[in-house]
């Protein structure tokens, strides 16, 4: 006769982990994503449910357009633009000097005015659709140290020069203005002279420059009549350049 089953004994120790089994077969490829159809240059926008392509923002690989499907600038926006914050669209450089410079009275010589050389770099080229450069210059010229014969005039040209080399080996005369700062007139048996402060202001817009760095300066070109000695004394002078991008 079999007796009653005894109480269950305590659980034995856990045996060591067995070796990893073989890799199972690859599962089936998942379903195709939900991207809809599009055309060249369109970008994607998530509408809250899925991704859709549209031409509000267009990227042709070189230029980006906003509200235009065919941008022809790095950023081409068709419509109004509102900017909150700084918008840097200009470059400006300028120099000033107040050190007196004595320029010999001799006619026919270009005398570079010290302290007026400044430069600007054109990156995108100039022209109607790119950049324009506005140059403004001023110099105050005094003729009190000139001397001349009866009926003499201390005249001059103030010339704006440009070069691609800061040493100005072959400057281009861009534009000029003129003035006088000395006059001597007959006065009976003798004559009387008057030296006074003259000045000149130059404003010019360059619109045909290729990309590169350009240097500008002011030069004084004496153009006196009957002047025999002395100097044209140049006091304050300034030269400013403003690059305006369209």
Give a structural overview.
The protein has 246 residues and is mainly β. Helices cover 0% and strands 53% of the residues. The chain is built from no helices and 16 strands. The strands form three sheets. Strands 7, 8, 10, 11, 12, 14 and 15 form a seven-stranded antiparallel β-sheet that branches. Strand 1 and strand 2 (51-59) form a beta hairpin. The relative contact order is 0.22.
* Unreliable spans: none
What integer value in Å does the Rg equal?
A: 40 Å
Number of strands: 16
Report strand %.
over 45%
Shape: elongated
Largest sheet: 7 strands, antiparallel
Share in helix: under 10%
Q: What count of helical segments does DSSP give?
A: 0
In sequence order, what are the helices and strands, one letter per element? EEEEEEEEEEEEEEEE
The chain-level structural class is: mainly beta
Mean pLDDT: 87
Q: Span between N and C termini?
A: 112 Å
Keywords:
mainly beta; five-stranded antiparallel β-sheet; 246 residues; 53% strand
Topology:
Elements: E1 42-46, E2 51-59, E3 64-66, E4 75-77, E5 90-97, E6 101-104, E7 111-112, E8 118-122, E9 131-142, E10 147-163, E11 172-187, E12 190-195, E13 197-206, E14 212-222, E15 225-229, E16 231-245
Parallel strand pairs: 3-4
Antiparallel strand pairs: 1-2, 2-3, 5-16, 6-16, 7-14, 8-14, 9-13, 9-16, 10-11, 10-14, 10-15, 11-12
